[in-house]
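Subject: Protein entry, chain in single-letter code together with its fold tokens

Category: Structural biology, sequence-to-fold work with a learned token vocabulary.

Notation: Tokens come from a learned vocabulary of local backbone shapes, not from coordinates.

Start of record: The labelled sequence and token lines come straight after this line.
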Amino acid sequence: MAIDLSPWSVLLGGDDTTDPITWAYLPSMHDGDAGAALRWRAVRQVAAEQGASTTDLAALDDRVLADEGDWSPHYVAVRGGRVIWNQRFDDDVVVGATAGHGPIADIWPLVEHARARVPYLLVEAGRGGGEVSLHRAGRTVQRSTEGSDPHLKKVRGGGWSHRRIQAHTEEVWRRNAAELEQEVEALWRDEPAELVVLAGDVRAREKFRGSIPVALDDVLVEVDRHTRPEGADSGAVDSALDLALDDRQRREEEVQLDDLGRHLQRGTACLGETAVAEALAVGQAGTLMLDARAHLHGRAALLGQAARTSAELVVVEHRGLPEGASVAALLRWPTPTDPDQSAPADAPATR
């Protein structure tokens, strides 16, 4: 998944100001108010040692300590005593507490949270209707379809009468599945999700699968459990979702790395921090690729350059980049072999 860096441009020097930024990120802290406050002071000290003003530090304190007892993951950035970014998260990612002071902020914690927050639709299908909910960035939008008969059950018996009643039951299920499918399509259009997780009654799931558009086939993940109150099992959904997202990410990375290999053969890609920094500096890099497992000292600067030149970000973590590189870039135009050769006349200008 390519990440658009433009929403964080204010943190990356994209607002034409030279004033430094003081920033801090705290992961979840579950050791009580006293212990968490002590750890916050240690994080805050890092920014102070890098030159943060007392005004900026006071502004950080105001935001971090504003919600007493709320030690959920929190990213705050301040410039000139004014808060320019204040965001809490309801999920955890594998990023430790960090802080700093300088011309640009380290947005890596924001990148990791963005990567973890994949929007998906949870469809809970039942014989008498169903419910679809969008799970995205900590909020849920729900829609329900009650169906024609909320107490519908399969009947037992024999002969012609049984077959007629059974046929009516099947038709009601089809109609309810179609109504539920329309709700899923509506949410899919309004709030694009990356996966559709299907749970609930076995027969209702079967009917739903038979009615969804072909376009949703590739993103459908089925969970063989109830998630509604009659047999709630959110853990099954979480496990299925984790496996599906991991598989999806691996497949995306294979495509991205294959694409990088082709670009390297054509001379429209480069590897290594020096070459990538040079390409970003002149607006030549259209995509910045980072290995999430690598310890890259200049990562914040590269992200800042990428944001200023409208380059998108791709993070890989299951396979390494070619030649053991920690960073790569796909180029908007080839690097000239003749040092006197300039960039194309229509090359995008840097900002």
In short: The helical segments are 32-49, 54-64, 108-116, 159-190, 202-211, 234-266, 273-281, 299-308. The CA atoms of residues 29 and 71 lie 5 Å apart. The two ends are 24 Å apart (CA to CA).
